[in-house]
Design a protein that fits this description.
Length: 304
């Protein structure tokens, strides 16, 4: 990984090559999108906002040029380039600037939360009734496929499932945006620490702890959700999902810190990540742990 990180920092075109190649391959292997954004994060963290911004612009220009050459209309490729720029590269570049300026993972994570909250709010404003919008999309896209699949669904089962999905998709998108941004930022910061500060990222992640005022904000949102009408309540519920995602990442940092402080085998961490895929409820428990840690700082008590 050191050699790969060194190659990214060799120059603008080597970094652009990694960003663009990983982005194109991510259409086949989605996880590579994090590598694409992480390269931007590494350049920004090491060389500053200007260099990172140039890599973002160069990468976007290369994709647009490739689209113009390879397709007559290029519509699909142009849309792909726009999505990569707006959803992956630009947010991670901004987060990297925040981290470089603040030298604080909690502040960068909080800023990622702001981006997620803005994205969710923008979807509600743009779509109006997001529940009805997603319900129409699901009915038109998945409805005919499920009906023709031959699977013996119970009466009303498809409609009930679509109702649940329609009410949760917007919040899930906001949560996924925050997670994808932070994964890319973490990888970029890890690469930087490999080259210039061995073990630095590990120490920072083990100490990751959000400000308690963010926990107060989460509790306020939960209180509003209890009394808001259906329209405002749906927005607040989606915002809560984003905020709880922040505390889930906080909870992961807490878990890693405790495992390191106690000298527990890293196999337990692997088991936790596997269980998070099998049992999504575990993510909620980690978020609750992060909320409580923001108030009580469990790691300091363990060290004491």
């Amino acid at each position: 990984m050191r050699a790969f990180a060194n190659y990214i920092l060799r120059g603008r075109w080597s970094a652009t090559l990694v960003v663009v190649t990983a982005a194109i391959l991510s259409l086949i292997l989605p996880l590579l999108s994090s590598i694409s954004s992480a390269a931007i994060a590494l350049v920004t963290l090491r060389h500053g906002a200007r260099e990172g911004g140039l890599i973002v612009l160069f990468s976007t220009a290369v994709l647009l040029a490739a689209a113009a050459v390879m397709q007559q209309d290029g519509t699909g490729a142009f849309v792909t380039a726009g999505v990569l720029f707006a959803v992956l590269w630009l947010p991670v570049w901004l987060l990297s600037i925040v981290l470089r300026w603040s030298v604080s993972l909690p502040i960068a994570l909080s800023f990622a939360g702001v981006i997620g909250l803005v994205a969710v709010t923008a979807m509600h404003v743009a779509m109006g009734d997001v529940y009805a919008w997603w319900r129409d999309v699901l009915d038109a896209g998945l409805g005919p496929i499920l009906e023709q699949s031959g699977v013996p669904f119970k009466p009303g089962q498809i409609e009930e499932t679509f109702d649940i999905l329609a009410r949760s998709i917007t919040g899930v998108i906001g949560s996924a945006l925050v997670i994808s941004m932070m994964i890319a930022l973490f990888i970029g910061r890890w690469w930087q620490s490999l080259l210039f500060n061995e073990g630095g990222f590990q120490r920072e992640f083990h100490a990751l702890r959000l400000d308690k005022r963010i926990a107060y904000g989460a509790l306020v949102l939960m209180g509003i959700a209890l009394f808001a009408d259906s329209g405002a309540g749906s927005i607040v519920q989606d915002l809560i999902v984003v905020v709880m995602t922040l505390f889930m990442i906080h909870g992961l940092g807490l878990l890693h810190g405790i495992v390191a402080a106690k000298g527990i085998s890293g196999g337990w961490l692997v088991a936790v990540y596997i269980l998070m895929v099998i049992l999504p409820q575990l993510a909620f428990l980690l978020a609750i742990a992060g909320l409580l840690d923001s108030q009580f700082d469990f790691r300091s008590k363990i060290k004491a």
